[in-house]
Amino acid sequence: MTAPTPTAVRAAADLAAIREQWGDLLAAIEEPPAAEWPPREARGFLDQLAAADADRHAAEPVIGRVPLTLREHPAPLNLSALTAALDVERDLFAFADHVASRVQRLPRAHRTETHGRYRYPTDTADRDHPARWRYQTAASPGSRVHGLHWAAVWLEGRALNDAVPGAEDLCTPLPPLLLDQLAATARAARRQVERVLGRDGRTTDLPDPCPWCGGSLAARTRAGGEPVVLCRSRGACSAPAEGRTRGVWRGAELAELWGRLDGARRAAA
Ligand SMILES: [Zn+2]
User: Fold this and answer.
1) Which of 243, 58, 245, 64 lies closest to 151, judged by CA?
2) Which of its termini does the chain have fewer beta carbons within 10 Å around, N or C?
């Protein structure tokens, strides 16, 4: 198998970012829109980062289905979040249908013979294989029943051309043009989710001082990029800086920073 192209990797990363933030988007529908960023307080933001980091270390399920589905909201408090969720879900479901129609093999049929008459019943195990994207019909919602998370996981698998154990021939690789379209769709959907969650490139001051030097801390997000926390003392910050930029925390380092902030808060309580 050849290595995934940069476009495939980018598409898969954007799809993963959408499903990782999907729970936040659904939760945001139930809350009144915040007047300023962050929608929830900054410590919640850091909690999320620490939790996301812990999740990455947990074993990945083979089929990533979670019952995190968009439900009817009789009285949504944040219409922007609801609209974004409906748009993104519609776009990714439609794109999964499109991709499946192009690259997913139809269910096999078996030939059977009874008294000289041939019949071709569908192989139901193949038709119902859990790795298959199933279309919506008048009688069934198909794979849509599993919500956006599964659509994103399935599309990630197609972008990276992941082999399905036990059904290696289920899908063919995406043609380059279709992969480009998937990458564009995933990028636009991710932007929409991050915009409505206020994670599209803003800076906010954290309420706690730097646990090492007492300087003020600022959290910054970039659309499509990893969040960063900066100590305003920068070069003068006394935080240990082995192998990284002094006074700057990103990725897994944020969990360490958060641990320190939490410790300082407990000590002060
Ligand atoms: Zn500092």
Assistant:
1) 64
2) C
Ligand 1 midpoint to CA 209 (Å): 8
Distance in Å, CA 232 to ligand 1 centroid? 7
Specify whether 241 is located in the same domain as 263. Answer: yes
Ligand 1 centroid–CA 217 distance in Å is 8
Map tokens 């083979």 to a residue. Answer: 62
CA of residue 218 to ligand 1 center, whole Å = 11
> What distance in angstroms lies between residue 214's CA and the mean position of ligand 1's atoms?
6
Query: One digit per residue, pLDDT tens: the chain, 269 residues?
Result: 578 899 999 999 999 999 999 988 988 888 776 544 343 444 454 555 445 444 443 433 333 434 455 666 666 778 889 999 999 999 999 999 999 999 999 999 888 888 889 998 888 888 889 999 999 999 999 999 999 999 999 999 999 999 888 888 999 999 999 999 999 999 999 999 988 887 777 777 888 899 999 999 988 876 555 678 899 988 889 988 777 788 898 877 888 888 888 888 888 87
> 15 and 137: one domain?
yes
Residue 23 contacts residue 191 (beta carbons within 8 Å): no
Residues 90 and 19 in one domain: yes
Do 183 and 247 lie in one domain? The reply is no
Pair (149, 228) in one structural domain:
no
In a domain, 221, yes or no: yes
The Cα angle at residue 184 between residues 173 and 164, in degrees rounded to 5: 30
Global pTM exceeds 0.70: no
- Domain span at residue 261 reads 203-268
Q: Ligand 1 being an ion, which residues bring their Cβ within 5 A of it?
A: 210, 212-213, 215, 231, 233, 237
Are residue 245 and residue 166 in the same domain, yes or no?
no
Report CA(263)–ligand 1 centroid distance (Å). Answer: 16
* 90 and 165 assigned to the same domain: yes
In this structure, the answer to whether residues 25 and 144 fall within a common structural domain is yes
In the sheet that holds 216-220, the strands lie side by side as 203-209, 216-220, 228-231, 248-250
